[in-house]
Automatic annotation (TrEMBL):
<dbReference type="Pfam" id="PF02080">
    <property type="entry name" value="TrkA_C"/>
</dbReference>
<feature type="domain" description="RCK N-terminal">
    <location>
        <begin position="5"/>
        <end position="121"/>
    </location>
</feature>
<dbReference type="InterPro" id="IPR003148">
    <property type="entry name" value="RCK_N"/>
</dbReference>
<dbReference type="InterPro" id="IPR036721">
    <property type="entry name" value="RCK_C_sf"/>
</dbReference>
<dbReference type="InterPro" id="IPR036291">
    <property type="entry name" value="NAD(P)-bd_dom_sf"/>
</dbReference>
<dbReference type="GO" id="GO:0008324">
    <property type="term" value="F:monoatomic cation transmembrane transporter activity"/>
</dbReference>
<dbReference type="InterPro" id="IPR050721">
    <property type="entry name" value="Trk_Ktr_HKT_K-transport"/>
</dbReference>
<dbReference type="Pfam" id="PF02254">
    <property type="entry name" value="TrkA_N"/>
</dbReference>
<protein>
    <submittedName>
        <fullName>Trk system potassium uptake protein TrkA</fullName>
    </submittedName>
</protein>
<dbReference type="InterPro" id="IPR006037">
    <property type="entry name" value="RCK_C"/>
</dbReference>
<dbReference type="GO" id="GO:0006813">
    <property type="term" value="P:potassium ion transport"/>
</dbReference>
<feature type="domain" description="RCK C-terminal">
    <location>
        <begin position="138"/>
        <end position="221"/>
    </location>
</feature>
Length: 221
């Protein structure tokens, strides 16, 4: 957990925004929770530093509430795509540095990318992909999509690589992937040495092109 206390604003307190808000607050950050629905605002008053009722498509209200002071804003308006787009546009126009937005579908995602959202998340889609990867192989423990065809995966070291050093494995030359770190029992080795040995049951954190990662998982482990 980060020790630096940061200021965040979460606009839209549905299932997604609500969960982001509660988690940030639990981590000790300063969180402004915003929703146009008064009941939601009351519900989240105890899970945020401040909870404010306003319609985020109204630029004047956003400005007078001091949204400019927040470096990082999450727009979690789900169903109302128009409100989500307009809010994002206003936030970027008034100079909020980082705006992350939840997209409802691929078209929504495309528009948000175009108008300058700094990160677009599509939770159902992203999670579905992640679960599918986790289900497809017993060696895959977790999966994070980076950009287009690149990802980071957690792979289980099998008996095939037991007692091999990273040099012996030479995954970069053989598969074009990089072992960023590995977990051996409870210990996390975040700066692996070429001579470090992998043991069966270790968890390898590997980054690379999806095709190369697939090949390493199939042939290398
Ligand atoms: P989820 O799918 O994550 O549950 P919802 O679409 O159900 O998302 O919830 C989105 C939240 O955003 C609702 O609480 C809704 O009141 C709020 N919301 C929608 N439009 C606006 C707006 N213009 N300004 C502020 N909050 C909004």
């Amino acid at each position: 957990m980060s020790k630096v206390k940061k200021q965040f604003a979460v606009i839209g307190l549905g299932r997604f925004g609500g969960s982001v808000c509660k988690e940030l607050f639990k981590m000790g950050h300063e969180v402004l929770a915003v929703d146009k629905d008064e009941d939601k605002v009351n519900e989240y008053a105890k899970f945020a530093t401040h909870a404010v009722q306003l319609d985020s498509t109204d630029e004047k209200s956003l400005i007078s509430m001091g949204i400019r002071n927040f470096e990082h804003v999450v727009v979690a308006i789900g169903d109302n795509i128009q409100a989500s787009i307009l809010t994002t546009l206003v936030l970027k126009e008034i100079g909020v540095k980082t705006v992350w937005v939840k997209a409802q579908n691929a078209y929504h995602q495309k528009v948000l990318d175009k108008i300058g959202a700094d990160l677009v998340v599509h939770p159902e889609f992203d999670m579905g992909k992640r679960i599918a990867h986790n289900m497809s192989s017993e060696k895959i423990i977790d999966f994070i999509d980076l950009a287009d065809d690149y990802s980071i995966v957690e792979l289980l070291a099998t008996s095939k690589v037991h007692n091999m050093t990273l040099i012996e494995l030479d995954v970069r030359a053989n598969y074009g992937v990089t072992i960023l770190a590995f977990k051996s029992g409870k210990e996390m080795n975040i700066a692996p040495d070429p001579d470090d040995k992998i043991r069966e049951g270790d968890i390898l954190i590997v980054m690379g092109h999806t095709n190369d990662l697939d090949r390493f998982e199939d042939e290398g482990l």
